[in-house]
Design brief:
Chain lengths: 287, 287
């Protein structure tokens, strides 16, 4: 039974995880660590954590489960730092948006009988802005929480039991879980998450340059414009790590989109336009 | 005082106009005409109109104001057909999404002392699907209703008074009005309305081809994916006329977006990515 959890990174996802665990009935202790004290204090005030860790390594050692909720490169750093100080009674898990590098490192450093377990996770939930103050106990309700466990891993029985229990907490937080291969995960999220994000950033940046000096035009655009540019608010800090750890799949999806837009542009006055609308309608109909 | 209005085209905008007029306190008669009887019957049942016109020309002649709420090419057709049968006591207005061709025809056929007046209008409101059954009395609340009146027009005093009163009804329906030149209108809506639409269609069509056979992936994408593809439901019938009547401005906006996406793609691993996020953040911050 998990009764002590450490969350590293009190941003939107880390803080929401603490709040959601509480709402789901978790009665144990939750300790939080954050690079800047401010985020941790906000999370503490909001009730997402019971205390702020002054020593991260010690906090990890004193917990059964460590949830890494920092940007991806910090997750990879923590994986390096924590591997030597944790053991087979411990489980790490994460909420990082790309899983290739994290899962490879989990194979290299964890998930053997004599080591801590690592369960790579990715809740498909977020907001266009980050930060502890946006933390939300309901963030994961109705979302899909992906895992990229590797069948060949041989975890200690203790860490395997913790992994099973963590999956149960994820369900109690209101998410559905799904398991898939890390490479397939990264390819898939390039289409359904990364492409929409970088596209919205490109559109927002273009519009800033074209009509940014006429802010009244944003009103005119209404809901359609607001929705298509909402993700333009997303922070570089998060999306840089995603770009760097899933570059090829993102490049491919962007290039295909460029070609698709060019195709539509060349067919504005031909029956090809009807075909594009019909295919697009089909996507939404099945949605 | 307007006491008899004919609405041609009982789709989303025509039906919503009838409903909004009622909610705004219009006590006169509203007669509706629609190419297919079904839409007109729905609008009648919803209370958007008092009766269905069996003879469109006669209904126009018997009304003071005719609102053209059909697709753009049908608006242009009706402008041709109605010009000879209406006179200086009459006003036409429309809700078409491009204004260049409509405003040019209004100069050629209307807006002289011996002819009917024509006030070209464009409420910036809509939904991703059309149809009378989606008609909504609140559709225009908070929206901007654009007009592309031409200062040189010399309307009869009767049609000018009707145009003034129609603008008052637009305000009572909850919209703010703004006047601009038709060419500027078309250039502007290319950025804030047409570009987001064709982009969402391209994205939806691409995703249908790439992941359409894995509908469970749509769940995974969550809100971001839903929002970015919502306009993928929009009907070709409406957007064909827009593509044909604002081709150049739309081509330009799409081409610039293709270039912008390519720029981001080429900078996924460089500081150029930060710059794009910062410009995009600025667009949203001012929004």
């Amino acid at each position: 039974m998990i009764d002590r959890i450490a969350i590293f990174g009190m941003g939107l996802l880390g803080t929401s995880t603490g709040l959601a665990l509480r709402t789901a009935g978790f009665k144990g202790t939750i300790v939080g660590w954050n690079r800047s004290p401010q985020g941790a204090e906000t999370a503490l005030k909001m009730g997402a954590i019971d205390s702020i860790a002054s020593d991260a390594l010690q906090a990890a050692q004193q917990s059964q489960v460590v949830v890494l909720a920092t940007p991806i490169f910090n997750i990879l750093d923590w994986m390096e730092k924590l591997a030597p100080v944790l053991g087979p009674e411990d489980l790490l898990t994460d909420v990082g948006s790309t899983k290739g590098e994290i899962t490879a490192k989990a194979t290299a450093l964890y998930n053997r009988p004599d080591r801590a377990g690592f369960l790579p996770g990715h809740p498909m939930a977020g907001k266009e802005r980050g930060g502890a103050d946006l933390g939300d106990a309901k963030l994961f309700e109705g979302a899909v929480w992906l895992f990229t466990d590797v069948p060949a891993w041989e975890r200690s029985s203790a860490s395997e039991a913790l992994a099973k229990e963590w999956r149960e907490w994820v369900l109690k937080m209101g998410s559905r879980t799904r398991d898939l291969d890390a490479a397939r995960h990264d390819e898939m999220v390039a289409w359904v998450s990364h492409l929409p994000q970088y596209l919205s950033t490109s559109l927002s940046a273009l519009l800033q340059d074209e009509i940014g000096d006429a802010p009244e035009l944003k009103d005119v655009g209404g809901r359609a414009l607001r929705e298509m540019t909402r993700l333009g608010s997303s922070p570089y800090s998060m999306w840089r790590d995603i770009a760097l750890t899933n570059t090829k799949a993102i490049e491919l999806s962007l290039q295909k989109l460029e070609q698709r837009i060019a195709h539509l542009r060349e067919n504005l006055r031909t029956p090809g336009l009807r075909e594009e609308f019909e295919i697009a309608n089909r996507f939404r109909k099945d949605a």
